[in-house]
Predict the 3D structure of the following.
Amino acid sequence: MNYPVWYLPSIGGGFLIALIAVTHVFVSHFAVGGGLYLVFSEKKGLRENNPGILAFTKRHAKFFLLLTMVYGSITGVGIWFIVALVNPGGISLLIHNFVFGWATEWVFFLLEIAAAFVYFYTFGKMDDKTHVTIGWIYFISAWISLFLITGIVDVMLTPGAWAVHRNFWAGFFNPSFVPSVFFRTFIATMLAGAYGYLTASFTEDTAVKESMTRFSGKWTLVSLILAIPSGLWYVAVLPAHAHRLVAGQSPTIATALHWGFWAVAGLMAITLIAGIAKPSWNLKPVAMAAFVCAFLIVGSFEWTREASRRPFVINKVMYSNQILKRDVPALREKGFLNSARWVQIRKLTAENRMAAGKELFINQCYACHTIGGFNNSIIARAKSMSYTALAAYIEKIHKMRYFMPPFAGTPDEAKALAAFVAGKLNGKEIKEQRPAPDGTGSGKSLYEENCSGCHELSDLKEKTAGWEQIKIRAALDKLNKLAEGMPPYEGTPAEKDRLSVFLYSLNHGSPAEISVPDGKTVYETHCSPCHEVSGLAEKTADWDRAKIRAALDKLNELEDAMPPMKGTVQEKEALASYLNSLKGGRK
């Protein structure tokens, strides 16, 4: 909220970051592992006194130099440029805390560049021992760069104690630092093998081609095997919410991991068959397939790492929309528009509500949502929600979907945002809905406010086909137990009754045609001859609704003289909700 936003509504800044970052990581990690590969490739040629392998190494070094020093350097600068435009708040916070860490990395990066040029341009022009030493200097410098960058990058996901006192060393040696260094090192050497496999496929000397294919295959296989346990170690140290997202609560992460799993399987199969067992099968299309698999592995990892931070850009410190976590309570009380520095509208009025809603969208939603773009379009996400439902949903969005930041603004600002999304973007009617006389909404409005953000009506209709209304009602009491990651429904028992009727009606006609007993009427019919309302409220004061409902099935077991209740299941449900409401509605 302290920086202007580079607004690209149909593309989204996050997509641009991902596009540059994934390709950069694919090359920058090769820049680390490839240095070690060149050293051992050269040592192999020298040990075997094989001019063909040495020629292969020099040719691979040229490819290595052009790719890492040109494309790698350009995309490295590109990341700084795009991040500074898309999320300046996050990068500013990291620079103010870790600038000397980055400065140290730049020193080793300069040494890395110098060593790379010396290594290639002196190939065959200096004594072998010195030349190999230059290769070692390059690799060690590159690995130290990886070591330093890992400490800074991983603090965004696992800040640990740094989130509290901002100590440099606590942030640098954060909880995921060590497993991440191991995992990235093995990914780097795995990529070196995949790149070497590709170079070998273009080699015309059959003997050299098969020798370096098998060499690259073993290099890749060992790296993959070592990367798996270090990757699992990395996942094990993630914060609880991130671990749940990686474990399956996030559909996007699940998709990325699915692609990553098959990429690992594909690369391993190619390596074993066409790399080690039958190196003569290393044709250019096969090598390219291995190359693509390696790219998908890196892309899957980077996507998962970025997505598992949600709703934060720096975990527990700054949300993805650049709003500090500590500032949210004050912004909800005082308002966002009169606090942000780069907005034109300071005071919300009926006349400027749409324009204010757009500014709120840009500053609070655009970090993750596009407008009509292929990536997470807000139009598609909110198309099933009415204005009133969306306004109510926005105010509790963080509770409903943890991986989305809480709305940092007043209720009126939430309505302005809802008006822009529902009215301007989706063409819905902007009309305030009056609450029902009993304080509850209709079943349809309850669905829109609480369910439509994640569920289409057609999906719920299919899901509940064949369910009785009583089963739907019972499910609303235990949603978080039915599906991991689904938040519990926090409505009152009466609201749950109305929502269950609406969901039941999807497969059984109009809600008006479905009879739902009134709990108070059931009490008066079955209980009032013997029990005062105050007495029942006192009797069940420490009971939750589930215990009250269970008791209605065995009243004669609780007291010998009490007759069993002969009402229907629906009447017992309504009575349980009514009795529960007498004491404040414990769930």
Remarks:
- The mean pLDDT is 87.
- Residues 209 and 518 are 82 Å apart (CA to CA).
